Amino acid sequence: MSDGNKVYNILITKGEYDPLEQYDFYKKRIDSQKDFLYNEYNTLENDLTDELFREIDVIILLFGLYHYNKGLFEDLIRKSNEFNVPLLLVRSYGMELILKELEERSDAVVGWNPHCIIDAIETLVDGEDWSKPCDIVEESIE
Prior knowledge:
Layout: E1 7-12, H1 22-31, E2 37-42, H2 50-55, E3 58-62, H3 70-83, E4 87-90, E5 97-99, H4 100-105, E6 108-110, H5 114-125, E7 139-141
Parallel strand pairs: 1-2, 1-3, 3-4, 4-6, 5-7
């Protein structure tokens, strides 16, 4: 887990329409991990400027928001490529299936286990490939 010294800058998708409250659920999971220090930026309350993307360590896409925020997801994927910021796709709570196109464009895909999410963030920031050591077998939908 975290060495306690690093403070991660993460950008989290936050959709204007979030009927299942994916964002709030995600925040509770991450905040439950007391040794993980981070600055949170989100897509509703922060200006998505080039300067912000230069500071971000990881972009977190909450798959449960994709259907209602496809344009936002596409913009974030473009910015990820432009600024070389890793993409972490978090599956919807209780859902194993994800879109294959999003999986292929993401650097890591995890479920809602907070340890897996943090491990993926730390691994991606360290520049290592995510090998899904704590995640379950995934299936994709076309």
